[in-house]
Write a structure and sequence with these properties.
Blueprint lengths: L1 E2 L40 E6 L6 H11 L3 E6 L2 H10 L8 E3 L3 H9 L3 E2 L22 E14 L14 H4 L8 E2 L6 H11 L3 E6 L4 H13 L1 E2 L6 H7 L4 E5 L3 H8 L3 E4 L7 E9 L5 H11 L2 H11 L2 E2 L2 H4 L4 H9 L7 H18 L3
Helix pairs in contact: 2-3, 3-13
Length: 361
């Protein structure tokens, strides 16, 4: 169990990690230098992201303006943003997309909705946690963990759950955890990726054993449904529930805002780690400006400022040197769950459909 009281709000990710399938390669048409000039033109860029909460979207807009960019940030859940980018591929609205994880961007790349490029800061990041296919079309920005958190004023470390499965198999936790009512967010899908991948069975339904689907059924039957427009921490503060899913990036800010003390669970199998990525939307008529923006946003200086503001964990090695020491310590020590992300990517769409039709009542 890890304590996050020392962490301030950080950038939400939701992408997944190195090892995801890269999908069909797109032409490396823009792998030349980003542009002949680094001076922004002032054209309005539409930026799709699932990482605009906790003030990040406002911060990005303000800082981009100071740098000479004009951006319109459009927020959506990871799955919803993915579907939107793919649906619009023949008539793109967005110019840049960021915050989505590898699994989502692999799907978008395979659909031909983003194109290959190389940012000015390519040499400062670990490319193994980005696009590992030919013609790299998405590049890593920020890491975070997907966690089960609980009210530490209600449960001691010894009495708290030790794994997700404890929530629906132990009476003291039944009806005390918030369960999702939709699977349109990266966090929710990552939670189920972490659970279902433990029950991989080639002869099972959608590659999952009967026991695995039983776990999903029990998750929904024994949890307290999320309440629309009501934050999990607000429900914890009121005593309505005691625990639920939490990206590591939001915990400290929520603790402060709702006056809740949260501890997090690290199961023996580890936790899913997510990596936010950034990509150039294929077909944008503002390509030069979009590439300048990507060069600016992913730069060490900007990512370091972002890390200081939100206590994020940058992938940029130079920016990471300025990250909060507690953040560095956590990510250096937390156990990463071993997940076959290729298997998850290939099946997540079908899993979501099955869960929504059969279990999510």
């Amino acid at each position: 169990m890890r304590k996050f009281q020392t962490l301030m709000a950080a950038a939400v990710a939701a992408t997944l990690l190195a090892g995801c399938g890269a999908g069909t390669a797109t032409p490396a048409a823009s792998e030349a230098p980003s542009s002949t000039s680094t001076v922004p033109s002032g054209e309005t860029l539409v930026v799709y992201t699932n990482s605009n909460g906790e003030g990040r979207g406002d911060w990005l807009t303000a800082e981009a303006t100071k740098a000479g960019f004009k951006v319109e940030v459009v927020g959506a859940g990871g799955a919803d943003a993915t579907n939107k980018l793919i649906a619009e591929k023949n008539n793109p609205i967005a110019d840049v997309a960021f915050g989505l994880n590898n699994m989502y961007f692999a799907q978008i790349k395979a659909a031909g909705a983003i194109e290959a490029f190389e940012p000015a800061w390519a040499g400062e990041v670990d490319t193994a946690v980005g696009d590992t296919g030919d013609g790299k079309a998405y590049w890593p920005l920020v890491k975070q963990a997907i966690l089960l958190g609980y009210n530490s004023d209600k449960f001691s470390a010894d009495a708290a759950p030790k794994d997700w499965t404890d929530l629906w198999t132990k009476d003291e936790f039944k009806s005390r955890y918030e369960r999702v009512t939709g699977l349109g967010t990266a966090t929710a899908q990552l939670v189920f990726a972490g659970i279902l991948s433990r029950y991989k069975d080639d002869s099972g339904d959608l590659g999952i054993s009967d026991e695995g689907w039983k776990q999903v059924e029990q998750y929904f039957q024994n949890g307290s449904p999320a309440v629309a427009k009501t934050d999990l921490f607000a429900r914890i503060a009121s005593g309505e529930v005691d625990m639920g899913q939490m990206p590591s990036s939001i915990i400290a800010e929520r603790e402060k805002s709702f006056k809740v003390n949260a501890e997090t669970v690290v199961p023996s199998v580890g936790v899913p780690l997510a990596v936010e990525q950034i990509a150039l939307v294929k077909g944008t008529d503002k390509k030069a400006e979009a590439l300048k923006f990507i060069d600016w946003f992913g730069s060490a200086d900007v990512q370091a400022a972002f890390a200081k503001k939100f206590n994020s964990m940058p992938v940029n090695k130079v920016a990471a040197e300025q990250a909060n020491p507690d953040v560095l310590e956590f990510f250096a020590s937390v156990k990463q769950q071993d997940i076959d992300w290729q298997f998850v990517q290939e099946n997540m769409g079908a899993w979501v459909e099955k869960i929504e039709l059969e279990y999510m009542q």
